Amino acid sequence: MSKSKTAAGAPKKSWSDTKSKIYKYRGFYLMFLPVLIFTILFHYLPMFGIGYAFTEYHGINKPEFVGLENFRKMFAAPGFWTAFWNTLKLSIVKLILNTGAAVLISLLLNEIKNTAFKKTTQTIIYLPHFMSWVVTASVFTLILSPSGEGLVNSLLVNLGVVQKGSEIYFMGSKKWWTPIFYIVNVWKDTGWGTIIFLATLSSISPELYEAATMDGAGRWNKMRYITLPALSNTIVTVLILNLAKVMNLFESVFVMQNDAVIKQSDVLQTYIYTQTFNSGALPNYGYTTAVGIVKSLVGCVLVLVCNHLSKKTRGRGIV
Amino acid sequence: MANKTAKKEHKISAFSIVNGIIFILICLFILVPIYKVVIDSLDLHTTYGMRLWPEKFGLAGYKSVFSNPTLYRPLFVSLITTISGTALGLLLCTLGGYVLIQWDMPGRNFLAGLLLFTMIFEGGMIPTYLVVNKMHLTNNLLSVIFIPAISIYNLVLMRNFFEGIPQALFEAAEIDGCSPMQIFYKIVLPLSKAALASIGLMFAVTYWNDYTNFKIYITNADLYNFQMKLRSLIMGSDLPTALSGASENTVKNAAVMVAIIPFMIIYPFCQKYFITGINMGAVKE
């Protein structure tokens, strides 16, 4: 600490000063080396690879410069636009539903006085977060199965909602896929989302509530005037942090989609994946790189906007 | 007055009861899908429907899964990638985090900026694939070990934790003649056990659950991890032969259970570390 003060107090840093400092910190540079190598290999080299977007490249030929042809093709492709709007729709609705449910559940959880019951509930609702998307999709594929084994369909048949023999194939239904996607996401991540809100709630001083009780405030008024204002900052933070990630939606969609619901479920990342690895033809890496750039740019803009919003609302950026 | 108090108490308990019921329903919503998989994996009857208890109890589903040698390999791959990936990830996080708290180090801000920029902009799936391909790491487990290991988010979490270590400790060690590396493993690491546990667990879960990276970089079925294997199993493309009366569905349910069980066992003991981890990142003022 004192060292930095002297540095700031000196009128100008001379080169020999810096040199001796670099010498002093030589061990640290060495320690940083592995981090630097990994960052360059797996983050920066791919960034330079975006040049492929202006070429036609099939992996076997030399990349052939084609200018903006890939972008022109992309903007004319209906599949791209479907994926683009689906990405925004699915991840933003999912974000709002998950956050809303998490806030509601943490408020109610905070009212539970019995510690053992509260602990057990928490343990249970955090559980699905640790199951992989493959496992989650498998579990729901099994219980939503249209055959006689599916729990939900047997329930519907027994209740007489659905005729036996015309069971609903939820995962492959254009009408049902999107709601099921949201439900599975709420099932998996809402509980985990409550942790941060519960931490905020537990940091509210109990004296505030006591004072409010003295003033005759009921449960509702206490929530309205103490709890919600305290939570609002955290809610904004969570929304902003997650908004920055909306373009990266991939695995959850990938393991739940199938050919019958491509129009409802295709997002940019799955579009890129299938166009490259599952198209059957020789992939044009140039084209899918171009789609990736559009995805990254939109994501980048979102991050910067969110960062700006974050600085405005809570006084510090997200990165 | 007395009447009013009594009324209020009554109201509170009514709320508590409703609240309790709400949470029982929420827990059921979470648990029923998992529970259904548990009992169906133990039921040898061919159709389950709404049954909430196995009608014909038996372990043939699990026996079919474990009698299949093609499932050992994926489990082994999962184990290797999880252990080595977690170790590498922790190494990179702690080294990076430790260097980033050297505020006085020339170039520190530049290095921090270099790392943070990757959180804003990325090359994307295909350029990354092409780079990995050029390094001849496709169909090589090193790719799926290396890529998740350099997690800038976890590195920043680690740095946040290191920042909480009193500066005086470093200075004292320096005066005693400790080198940066000695300070690192004699002071920083022993004081960061909680952070190492929670970030290590986060890495372990990421590696154990990894599907995306395997899907992109690994096409050789011999190198599939358990998630990949489970996926192809559920999609019905390579079901292990069902043994002694276990139906196809029983085997599928049993396979899902095998993917969940290791985690279910450690989860209750580790829960608090996960929560420390998330609070470390998010609630830091």
Description:
The complex is a heterodimer of chains A (319) and B (285). Chain A is mainly α and 319 residues long. Chain A has 2 domains: 29 residues; 246 residues, Orthogonal Bundle (MetI-like fold), CATH 1.10.3720. In chain A, helix 5 runs parallel beside helix 9 and helix 14 packs antiparallel against helix 15. Chain B is built from 13 helices and no strands. The N terminus of chain B is likely disordered. In chain B, helix 3 crosses helix 12 and helix 12 packs across helix 13. Chain B is mainly α. Classes of the chains: A mainly alpha (319), B mainly alpha (285). At the A-B interface, helix 1, helix 2, helix 3, helix 5 and helix 6 of A face helix 1, helix 3, helix 4, helix 5 and helix 6 of B.
Note the main attributes of this structure.
heterodimer, A: 319 residues, mainly alpha, MetI-like fold, 2 domains, two-stranded antiparallel ribbon, 2 strands, 70% helix, 1% strand, flat, B: 285 residues, 73% helix, globular, disordered N terminus
Short note summarizing the structure:
The complex is a heterodimer of chains A (319) and B (285). Chain A is mainly alpha-helical and 319 residues long.
Beta strands of chain A, count: 2
At the first level of CATH, the class of the largest domain in chain A is: Mainly Alpha
Q: Give the low-pLDDT segments of chain B.
A: 1-7
What would you call the structural class of chain A? mainly alpha
Head-to-tail CA distance between termini of chain B: 45 Å
Strands of the biggest beta sheet of chain A: in what spatial order?
1-2
**Structural class per helix/strand content of chain B?**
mainly alpha
Give the strand tally of chain B.
Answer: 0
Give the number of domains of chain B.
2
Residue share in helix of chain A: over 70%
Q: Largest inter-chain interface?
A: A-B, 97 and 94 residues
Helices of chain A, by number, come to 15
Per DSSP, the total helix count of chain B is 13
Element string of chain B (H = helix, E = strand): HHHHHHHHHHHHH
